[in-house]
């Protein structure tokens, strides 16, 4: 299994670990210390050796930060994790914080004592974060202390070793653009801006630029690596040679000089001594690198990671590969859902379902000669009240049976060499209350609204986000997460800068892949989410319109539970969309399914509502 169901949260050690951390404050000259979820590469998914927040607090979510002072310990999370935080940390040691409404810099500005000295590990915080913290501390006549060593690491006994996952080549068949062409484009842009080099610190960008993939972190196939691309077309890639074999080293030698990770500090210092102007992304680059560049006269010129936007705009090869991967993944989902429908209510657990789905993905991958490389994140497999935990991770301790009369939410994805998938389906286990059907249909209305949206050039994700919520708003409800996130091409399942949310200001451009996943969650009762992946299509004319419009093309084709749909709540256009979606699902997947029982299930699951 790519997923473990072991209990990894350890709240019982919270007090002794916080006490051990506080014991080092006096010698370091600090009054508090920040422990972010991020690692030295600022990634969402981090290796076991960098799970500092989880080790200290017990909280295992993918976003959060802890502030430990002499008398308080606060764990800041967003709305996705408020329920999970209460379940995972010792409330006698840690208090909850609001990562969105009052993140650490605002908390400090409002609550820190005068002269507060905050310690941070400069490798775990970006320049943008440091500026916010410095501004907040200045209001308290305080100071930011950049520590040479992380005090938490000093008290972390049995810390796992750093990963050494093998690196592979992402061939042109799936990448669509040669690595040398990507490097040349970045170099040309740098030369036009009179920049000597660009520092690339995001491992996904390194993977995309050099057309390589790795196995260092769970479920995201990028190697933990950094790079410097120079305006003259040369490049350095800082990648541990224990991760690369002869073939990969020979491939990289045609593109760049491969150096050991520790050598980056000397290279940046040398650029500084030469007075070089180096492009850095303040939202991605560890603050420690700014100091290295500027210490001896160099200039860190702030700008966006030069690979971020091109990586988000998929080329034709990547889009076609993703479409094929989604059909394969759709077959696996249908086989799983057909299996689930055949099980007696009360006989399947959340773990049973998770395992069955991964087995289906593996089986279909072998049959279609496109193996499942990994899952794209830990499957969220939640029945009844567990489904209301937005990023629920089932363990042997929380595992429960799917009982009659309950909703079951399963959010999962696969990593294939030709694409990354992410899909959520909510299904009924037996007969469920009419209220749950009503909310399911309201969520469905939001998903359809995004699927059918037409929008002009310049539209941002924040402009579309209300479309997914309006039906719920009218019912006095909402959901505490974004409507959609960007998705990579055999890379991270959460990719920026594109997204659909209240705060999404990136213009949506043709080729961008996003999720479309409105939901509704009632803590202690049930959760609903329906998710497809979509991509932005080129401008297209609208009959009778004044200007061309962009739209979305759906990638995910898997039936939506017909039983949960209250047709009276759907407009005629929405019902037509649902029937057309199910017809396309049937037409695309039936030829790929040979099992008669599964075919029969799919036929029934995609039957039209209107005749």
Task: Write structural notes for this entry.
Helix content is 35%, strand content 18%. The protein is an alpha+beta fold. It has a 6-stranded mixed sheet with strand order 4-3-2-1-5-6, with helices on both faces. A 6-stranded mixed sheet has the order 12-11-10-8-13-14, with helices on both faces. A hairpin with a 4-residue loop joins strand 10 and strand 11. It starts with 13 loop residues before the first helix and ends in a 6-residue tail after the last helix. The model has no long low-confidence stretch (mean pLDDT 96).
Key traits:
single chain, 611 residues, alpha+beta, Creatine Amidinohydrolase, Chain A, domain 1, Creatine Amidinohydrolase, 3 domains, six-stranded mixed beta sheet, 20 helices, globular
Please outline the helices and strands.
Elements: H1 14-22, H2 25-28, E1 32-36, H3 52-57, E2 65-69, E3 73-77, H4 82-88, E4 95-98, H5 104-111, E5 117-120, H6 127-138, E6 143-146, H7 151-155, E7 168-169, H8 172-175, H9 179-192, E8 197-200, H10 203-210, E9 212-213, E10 226-230, E11 235-238, H11 246-253, E12 257-259, H12 263-273, E13 277-280, H13 287-294, E14 299-302, H14 308-312, H15 316-341, H16 350-367, E15 374-375, E16 380-383, E17 406-412, E18 414-416, E19 419-420, E20 423-429, H17 434-451, E21 454-455, H18 461-474, E22 484-486, E23 495-500, E24 513-516, E25 519-522, E26 526-529, E27 532-536, E28 550-554, H19 572-589, H20 596-605
Helix pairs in contact: 5-6, 12-13, 15-16, 15-20, 17-18
